Amino acid sequence: MKTRCIVILLAIGFFLTAPPAPAHHAFAAEYDVDKPIKLTGSVTKIDWRNPHAWFYIDVKDENGKITNWGFELPTPNTLMRAGWTRNSMKIGDMVIVEGTRSKDGTANANAKTVTLSDTGKKLFDTATATIAPE
Amino acid sequence: MSLLPTALKRLSYCFLLAALIHLQAPAASAQWIHVTLAGTPRTPDGKPNLAAPVPTAPDGKPDLSGLWQVDSGKYLQNLAGEGVQVPLLPWAAAVYKGRQSDSGKDRPSVHCMPHGVPDAMLVYPFKIVQTPGEVIVLEEEFNQYRQILTDGRALPQDPEPAWFGYSVGKWEGDTLVVEVAGFKEGSWLDDGGYPHTDALHITERLHRLTFGTMEMNITIDDPKAYSKPWQAAPIHFKLLPDSDLIEHLCENEQDLQHLQGGH
Fold first, then answer.
1. Which of A25, A50, A103 sits opposite B249 (nearest CB)?
2. Which domain range does residue B225 map to?
């Protein structure tokens, strides 16, 4: 009952209070909306700093080769106002990330959602943290 | 069997829980994102009353003090508003077109330079602190500030050009009319890339409607970039009650190295 309440309230609360998205750079100049990406990996680093929070995951391919991917999030200021903190994600967490690939072909993307792969719990969803797209 | 009473019961329980969490929040919060601010008009349930009348400053003027943010990201994207033709001079039109086709990849903020006037107020929150001789605007982005001097001084003659210019304000009824001039070149009027020169003169009219809402009307006058003055689309701000600014420094700029431009 309590958990369901919290889920309902969080959903309502985020929707009602989400501020506009600060965009210190032009999304389209950096990320390709035609290149969505979905990766699973373990968190190696979290950079909770402005102007954008970043986190990094080790992604293992079918041959066991590991590539470290970097993902950009909104400013920590927006994330904190939406209820997340620098401790919402931990080093070693196994996460599924949906995002938009960087245009320059490097192993970077702009993160849209971050979900814990063990429990399915959604850690970040930029749709609820922002009104306007980055 | 009617599910409605059960649903209502569950919802009532949820809102009771919400009220308890809300009351707990100021003590539990690690920083001042949720803080109970004295002087906030409240409804019987203790929530800020955003529809309350505009507060009055000790000198009898409307008090614009508070933490504010725009109600939409649209003003930052296009200061003029959807479909409005801005009277750009040919060189300025060419610059604007280039910035649009490049998706704004050379925007000053990717170089950690702040937004200027007015666009620093069009995205991140800002706090107005109104005092008798000056209205201080604390911009959250990059921890910047603006001073609007209301002590009767005139705009400086031949000023050192400044990114935010120089601002003086006076009251016309319930509206604070701010004149801004003395700009240095380089800032963009919005993220779309409307340019300006050092001849820019901006008039901002700030009018608080209720405790929780404020509007701003802007006139852009730059005869070296535009053939005549033009009006920005009216801008609406919402109060962020029981909250505060969060520090914001450009300490980990990672995008510049990846920017490609184009659409």
1. A50
2. 66-246
The domain tally of chain A equals 1
The dihedral sign for the CA sequence B71, B74, B79, B81: negative
In a domain, A109, yes or no: yes
Note whether residue B189 is domain-resident: yes
Contact yes or no for A26 and B104 at CB 8 A: yes
Those residues of chain A whose CB sits closer than 8 Å to some CB in chain B are 1-2, 4-6, 8-9, 19-30, 47, 49-52, 54, 70, 72, 75-77, 80-81, 85, 102-104, 106, 108, 131-132
Biggest distance spanned by C-alpha atoms of chain B: 79
Look at residue A127 and give its three-state secondary structure.
helix
Judge whether residue B3 has pLDDT over 80: no
Q: In which band, very low, low, confident or very high, does the pLDDT at B231 lie, cut at 50, 70 and 90?
A: very high
Indicate the pTM of the whole model: 0.83
Task: Look up the ipTM and state it.
Answer: 0.80
Is residue B81 within a helix (H) or strand (E), and if so which, with residue range? none
Tell me if A134 is assigned to some domain: no
- Cβ-defined contact of A28 to B191 (cutoff 8 Å): no
User: Domain total for chain B?
Assistant: 1
- The tokens describing B33, both together, are 């994102």
- First vs last C-alpha separation in chain B: 56
Q: Which of A22-36, B7-21, B28-42, B76-90 is predicted most confidently?
A: B76-90
Contact B67, B245 (CB under 8 A): yes
The CATH number given to whatever domain includes residue B233 is 2.40.128.20
Q: Residue A90: helix, strand or coil by DSSP? A: coil
Q: Is residue A125 part of a domain?
A: yes
pLDDT higher than 70, residue B141: yes
C-alpha–C-alpha distance, residues B257 and B263, integer Å: 17
Q: Is residue B11 classed as helix, strand or coil in its secondary structure?
A: helix
As a whole number of angstroms, the distance between CA A39 and CA A71 comes to: 11
Report the chain B residue with the minimal C-alpha distance to residue A34. B263
Looking at chain B, which residue has its C-alpha nearest residue A33?
B263
Contacts of B69 in chain A (CB under 8 A): 19-20
In a domain, A97, yes or no: yes
Q: CA B128, CA B144: separation in Å to the nearest integer?
A: 12
In the block, tokens 């069997």 appear at: B1
The residue of chain A with its CA nearest to that of B140 is A77
pLDDT, average across residues A25-30:
74
